[in-house]
Each structure stands twice: as structure tokens, then as C-alpha cells.
Amino acid sequence: MATSTLTVPYSIDEPNxxxxxxxxxxxxxxxxxxxxxxxxxxxxxxxxxxxSPYTSRSHLFDLNSVDKANQLLSTALTVLKAVRPDYATAPxxxxxNWSEVLERLKLSLKANAGYQWKEQFFYxxxxxxxxxxxxxxxxxxxxxxxxHAEAMKSGGLLKYWFGExxxxxxxxxxxVWRELxxxxxxxxxEGHRQAVRSTSKLYTEWKVERLRLSIGENAQHLEIxxxxx
Length: 229
Hints:
- The chain has helices at about 70-75, 90-95, 100-110, 140-155, 180-185, 190-200; strands at about 5, 25, 40, 45, 50, 60, 120-130, 155-160, 170-175, 205-215, 220-225.
- By secondary structure, it is of the alpha+beta class.
- The radius of gyration is 17 Å and the shape is globular.
């Protein structure tokens, strides 16, 4: 599979943090049978969900670690993808297929007739970056992989998506978290710190956005707004 480097917004502790987030190196997996509701580990079905481009055991999301609402949303988010070529600079809400994510959630609710979806709120981090196209980024792969595994171990990371740098080196990466506190815990590991130290000087430009994902009663509507503490 072809590789490229971008930046992963695992978390942000404060609005004014000088985020120097780690870089990653893989294209988003195609949404085929590998990104369905169940992953296969050692040939056996399990409750482990593929929620990022990383597919080894330590990067899978344990559906049993969260409540029903988060199980359903993480499964719906497996269809998340960019829908316009300028997603790196486009408004976040229009850069992705959020309507398709909502429809997938509604289908899941129909399959779980005994469960009633109440209004739910989730935490999104968006990292927009620019890195010189000539930068040798191959050594950053393992750094990001370790940081992502730590984030998965700490819990609550429902989805991690990143794109491919454009001709100017601009890119976007995003994480959907169960809540803000999960995102804070996800940034405390040594792997994350090493990645930050190794990549903080590579970017010519970067911007962090903290957003609130609201999904209304019975998943009838979805809204993404600025996060306010």
C-alpha cells in the first residue's frame, strides 16, 4: 500500500496549546470488508473494530470498552471519507460524508430496535498542516504507529482519519473521541511525546480546530460546531 505523511490530532489539552503533533504514514484503508462491524483477529471474528489505517491488534477498537451509543457511532464512522479534493482547506463539515455516517447510524438503530438513541455529544480534533513536499518522511511511520497504539490503549478514540498531502504539502487529519477527557489521556504516553519532539520542527504551517459533534434524538440530525469549554 502506498504511503504518505500527515499529522494525527490525537488530542489537545487546552485551546491555546502549541500543538506539535506527530506525523503518520499511510493512506486511509478502502472501506471494504475489513472496515465492517467486526474485524478478524487470528482468523476468528471478534468485537474488535478497524477505526484507522492501522490494522494490527493493538490498533483495533474494542467495542466492549464503551457503551451502546459509542459502539453504534464508531461502527457508523467506518464509512467516513473525504468527499472533495480540497478537504485539507475546506470547511470541516463539507469535507466529509457526514450525511452518510448519519444514515449508517440510523440503519444500526433499526437493527437495535430495543435501544433508543438520546442526544449525544462527542469531541473532534482537526489538524490542518503543511509540510514541505520534499521532506523525507519515511522515518515518521513508526513514531505515529506507536503514538496511535497508545491512544487506542488509553481508550475512547472512536475514529482516526487522515488524508494524503496535496501538491503543496497541505493535509488534514482528524480524530473523533468519546469525550474531551479521553483525548487528554490519549496524549500522555511516551510514544506520543517522542513523536511530538521528532516532528515539531517539520511543519511550515499548522492549525488546530476543536469541534463538537452533536447527534440529536433518534439520530434525526447531526451538527458540528466549535467546541466551547
